[in-house]
Amino acid sequence: MSTDSLVEEALAGSPQALARLISLVEDGDPEGQAVLRALHPRAGRADLIGVTGPPGVGKSTLVDAWTASLRRGGKTVGIVAVDPSSPFTGGALLGDRIRMQDHSTDPGVFIRSMATRGHLGGLAPATADVAKVLDAAGYDVIFIETVGTGQAEVDVVGAGDTVVIVLVPGLGDAVQAMKAGIMEIGEAFVVNKADHGDADRTVAEITMLLQLNPDRGDWRPPVVKTVATSARGTDDALAAIEAHRRFLVANGLLERRRRDRRRAEILRVVESKARDRALDLIRRGGRLDELAERVYRGELDPSTAADELLTESAQSPQSAQSPPSDANRQS
């Protein structure tokens, strides 16, 4: 089936076609770029919510409860769950379809597990693109749940309109989160499993830590207690997320945040394409093995060798050739 046909079927509501489009995008397939180009004008309408926190705090259970609440309100939901990678297959080890079985047959919910594939930032490299596909497909709310890697999760701030930090009582998570820099990116805080340990103390700790970082403008991040397994407090937490969106809209910050995201997206693509082109020129130039040997013998340091390769690749006639435009490809 052609890419155009897949796009048409996905926009008409086919989950199978949507899954195939996401696979093309996630795998870095050349057709995936065509998919993103076709869908880009339709994206930018969904609420993007990043959910992060240490392992075992109940992020998936919370997202499950929020999804149920949103569906009762008539909204459609996309879930991008970023899981650790299998060292053998590169695929996701944890299956969020297993953890969210209640929604597996709901046509208004689409769940996609993605692998980090060794990426250190908590988000899989194609996460933003997958969220864009779901956005263009018409889902009202998209949750981006990151792998619980702790200190590396700060990059979720660039993926969502609202970032939710999930913690639990009794494990010193608040202090650890402060050390990791996570406290600075949260726009709403959830203390889950509030029926265990001293939840009130954890709320007080988070509130105190937030007061030590007052440079947040007029928004004061709420701290909400929940017991996600019984959906206790989960609607209050969802209300806090929705309040943050209203705040962004009222102050013109949502558009600014999304413009910043597009700017970062352009830079990410430039970085990726420039790296690929430079490495291709370097490999074809045949100098890499020679310089590696000189570095091994101590005649050069790695930085100087890299500078030589970059200088040579920049001076190569092939580096000045721009790739054919889409119009040229079609002519």
From TrEMBL:
Gene for this chain: meaB
Which residue stretches belong to region Disordered?
302-331
Molecular function terms, GO-annotated: GTP binding; GTPase activity
Q: Does the keyword Chaperone apply?
A: yes
Q: Know the name of this protein?
A: Methylmalonyl Co-A mutase-associated GTPase MeaB
Q: Which family does it belong to?
A: Belongs to the SIMIBI class G3E GTPase family. ArgK/MeaB subfamily.
Matching entries from Gene3D superfamilies are given as:
P-loop containing nucleotide triphosphate hydrolases (3.40.50.300)
SMART domains in UniProt: AAA (SM00382)
Q: Which InterPro entries match?
A: AAA+_ATPase, GTPase/Isobutyryl-CoA_mutase, GTPase_ArgK, P-loop_NTPase
Q: Which residues form the AAA+ ATPase domain?
A: 45-253
Tell me what organism the protein belongs to. Answer: Candidatus Segetimicrobium genomatis
Q: Give the Pfam families listed for this entry.
A: MeaB (PF03308)
Instruction: Output the SUPFAM superfamilies linked to this UniProt entry.
Output: P-loop containing nucleoside triphosphate hydrolases
**The keyword Hydrolase is assigned to this record:** yes
